[in-house]
From TrEMBL:
Organism: Daphoenositta chrysoptera
Pfam families, per the entry: RADX
InterPro entries assigned to the protein according to its UniProt record, in alphabetical order: NA-bd_OB-fold, RADX
Name used for this protein in its record: RADX protein
GO MF terms held by the record: single-stranded DNA binding
Domain of life according to the entry: Eukaryota
Gene (UniProt): Radx_1
Length: 306
């Protein structure tokens, strides 16, 4: 059928009654958001953001309500979609934006694609990767992997991807989303090493929409975390510790989940795998720890400093 592209949509969407189908690749995926309220009677108050791209650039796509349980898990980073009967809306101004792996890619930030179950009912098709043709010009998924030796030089809030061998994972903890609120964030701390430094990555992992992965992070697994944010202590603290925290668009993968993921082609991922082959599993297991309370950042060693 006749296709359109994202760049053409941005220029013509207001004047068109019928929008042609779109062929796009998912580059980023947000966690699933529940926006239900007791006074509003909605069956499935869910929403998820994706960043999708074709040869002309990148745009946000929003999956609404009952389409979320039906499609969210099938729409992975790297998945190619054929979309028809979607709608176009002005962008929601307060949403978070992932940092694209390709800094040259054009971003269409004024509008977003809206996928709904009715008015009109969107038609979504997933194109298997082996059927994707090079002449479609769809961009590849690109990453921003860093090694542990590079981390200390990165600025606060810098976005990056990491891979490491888990040496410590703490118990799941809860933090209130807001003071006096009944809603909690669930998170756990983990350490991962990659052989480039004596220090591990310190990772603050909030539960994303991947409970099956979050609950099974354990020592000796290969852990990949994407769209992490660097947290630097900006005071002149000599014992300052750099750690990484998840963002709204973070994805987490452990051993058993890596097969077929786009990052397996990345050079730094391949270097890490080479390093793990040179390590003795028995030696690494002796250094691993699981569970317990992990106070972080470390409190000062005296009350005066506190």
């Amino acid at each position: 059928s006749k296709l359109t592209n994202l760049g053409h949509l941005e220029m013509t969407w207001r004047s068109r009654v019928h929008l042609h189908p779109l062929l796009v690749r998912i580059l980023h995926k947000s966690r699933l958001r529940y926006y239900g309220k007791p006074e509003k009677k909605m069956d499935m108050p869910y929403q998820a953001y994706f960043e999708v791209a074709d040869g002309s650039g990148m745009m946000s796509m929003v999956l609404w309500n009952s389409l979320c349980p039906e499609w969210y898990h099938s729409m992975k980073v790297g998945t190619v979609l054929l979309l028809d009967k979607y709608t176009i809306k002005n962008s929601y101004p307060f949403k978070t934006h992932p940092t694209p792996g390709d800094s040259q890619m054009k971003r269409f930030a004024t509008i977003e694609i809206s996928l709904n179950v009715r008015d009109p009912p969107t038609e979504i098709s997933i194109i298997p990767e082996e059927m994707v043709k090079p002449e479609w010009g769809l961009p590849e998924v690109k990453y921003r992997f860093i090694t542990r030796s590079e981390l200390d030089d990165l600025p606060n809030n810098h976005s990056c991807d990491v891979i490491g061998l888990v040496t410590f994972v703490g118990r799941a903890e809860r933090a209130r989303k807001r003071e006096y609120s009944e809603d909690f964030w669930l998170y756990r701390w983990a350490h991962a090493i990659d052989g480039t430094s004596d220090q591990p990555f310190i990772l603050e992992l909030f539960a994303t929409s991947q409970p099956d992965v979050f609950e099974h992070i354990h020592p000796m697994t290969y852990l990949v975390c994407t769209q992490m944010r660097v947290m630097q202590d900006l005071t002149e603290n000599p014992s300052r510790t750099v750690y990484l925290t998840t963002s709204n668009e973070s994805q987490i993968f452990i051993t058993g989940w890596h097969k077929g993921q786009p990052y397996t082609k990345d050079a730094k991922v391949k270097n890490f795998i080479q390093w793990t082959k040179s390590q003795s599993e028995a030696d690494q297991i002796k250094k691993t720890v699981i569970g317990g309370y992990y106070p972080f950042p470390q409190p000062p060693d005296s009350f005066l400093k506190y």
